[in-house]
Automatic annotation (TrEMBL):
<feature type="domain" description="HTH cro/C1-type">
    <location>
        <begin position="15"/>
        <end position="68"/>
    </location>
</feature>
<dbReference type="InterPro" id="IPR001387">
    <property type="entry name" value="Cro/C1-type_HTH"/>
</dbReference>
<dbReference type="InterPro" id="IPR010982">
    <property type="entry name" value="Lambda_DNA-bd_dom_sf"/>
</dbReference>
<dbReference type="Pfam" id="PF13560">
    <property type="entry name" value="HTH_31"/>
</dbReference>
<protein>
    <submittedName>
        <fullName>Helix-turn-helix transcriptional regulator</fullName>
    </submittedName>
</protein>
Length: 149
């Protein structure tokens, strides 16, 4: 086994971050995960790679093992997230496209993007981005001209 692997230090840093998130000292985590304190230090310093049994113990303690190994958060989705994902997967490709576009527009607005893009399609006009105009009101689905009271 190559003990000088390039991701060793990164994995060790993420392991240390998870240990701290769990509120444990190195000695406490070592004891709960079934390794010695020296082994725990070696894992966190990147000198040794944790094995599957250790990572399984970490998962039982509430650590995000996917994050430790890959750097990507692997937490379980919330009930709302799971419902959204289920509905997204069941939707037609056209609906999925609209959902992705809406989330992209929302991300741009949150990032402070200004202006709006209006495009047409089978779904009608779709506005992407923020459209901010003081004193302006847009009514959707209101009464037709001539039917106002």
């Amino acid at each position: 086994m190559n003990t000088n692997f390039s991701n060793g230090e990164a994995i060790g840093a993420r392991l240390r971050a998870e240990r701290k998130r769990l509120g444990l000292t190195q000695a406490e985590l070592a004891d709960r995960a079934g390794v010695t304190s020296v082994t725990q230090r070696n894992y966190e310093s990147g000198k040794r790679a944790p094995d599957a049994l250790y990572l399984a113990s970490m998962a039982q303690l509430g650590a995000d093992v996917q994050f430790i190994v890959t750097g990507l958060a692997g937490r379980e989705p919330t009930v709302d997230e799971a419902e959204l994902l289920s509905r997204y997967r069941a939707a037609s490709p056209e609906v999925q496209s609209v959902i992705r576009a809406a989330l992209g527009a929302a991300a741009r607005v949150e990032a402070g993007a200004s202006g709006a893009t209006i495009s047409g399609g089978s779904q009608g006009q779709v506005v992407f981005g923020g459209a901010h105009q003081p004193g302006m009101t847009i009514n959707v689905g209101g009464s037709k001209k001539g039917s106002e009271k």
